[in-house]
Amino acid sequence: METSFIPLxxxxxxxxxxxxxxxxxxxxxxxxxYGKFATGVCYESAILDYRTCARNEDGPTxxxxxxxxxxEHGDKxxxxxxxxxxxxxxxxxxxxxxxPNVIAPYADLxxxxxxxxxxRFYRLCARYGIDCPATxxxxxxxxxxxxxxxxxxxxxxxxxxxxxxxxxxxGSEKVFTLDSREALEATLDKVYAAGYPxxxxxxxxIPGDDSFMRVxxxxxxxxxxxxxxxxxxxLLEEHTPHGTGNHxxxxxxxNDPLCEKFRALLEGEGFVGFSNFDIKYDQRxxxxxxxxxxxRQGRSNYYVTGAGCNLxxxxxxxxxxxxxxxxxxxxxxxxxxxxxxxxxxxxTPKAYHQEMRERIRAGAVVNPLLYSPDSAxxxxxxxxxxxxxxxxxxxxxxxxxx
Length: 402
Known about the structure:
With 402 residues, the chain is α/β, with parallel strands linked by helices.
């Protein structure tokens, strides 16, 4: 299909592939993507023009890649879509320097930084009546002289994820779960010894397995109105050190009162573009508690497209065609998974198996990586290896539910 636009994605993971698949399904077009490595789910894909650039996250290099691609496609509108936090920040930072045929659907960098910095995000949540876990903000100058208003186990994570991964170190984890004060102090020492310059967030651990998690994906149009929201009930996450918290199995779920709280925050702050919230249900008080906001679609974003709300169409209708749809909360039942079905059933609570089977029987199930128009032999072999690897990872890092 000939279109007046072309997507330019940044990153190389399942987030990129899911967006490329959405564009291919909706418009029959190949997206372009800049990734750092000649590996992964996007490499040698039939639905992507995948280009490697090792310095992709360097600001001037990022800007030149956008400019060069815009010159290459001067007759089209280029939609720049960041699929990682660093790329979102770069797109927001440089959007005013992009060529005239480029659109980047992002808020100003100052707003993105305010919303994605966990310390400031929790203050905003309090203003809008959104519950959060009990939290302590730690700064390096505190040393060991601080008191926590809750007992272990502790959750410890960076306030600024972009800066954190710029100072990686052996034993680093996306989120630390620590059973004692001694383990917490040792972890803080390692983080700051590696050069991380910002605050660390220390929280109480809300009890409950992965199935107490929720994910909320939203799209705010260029007029600042939240046009789509879709809540996912996470049944299983990954548990490798660098993959902790990455979703593995999601059922769509209806909870409009919860969604409306986040609509008020997004519209009240004038946010535009995709946003993604991590939330956990606290069975102790019956409240849903927000962990963070990502100023982008999440890596599991295809659970929304799989529920009948194609994310690529949202972007094109808003940014290219200039027509925003009436606001809607997506309610269609769907099951999303990036692991083999046996892994999904082996490691999710049995209480959800009947609903999972019903959605499978109804055909309302999708693995975003398994796409028939993109099934060359070499790719199928790589994906088969990827899928089999989950058996090993879950056996090593996660105990089966009782």
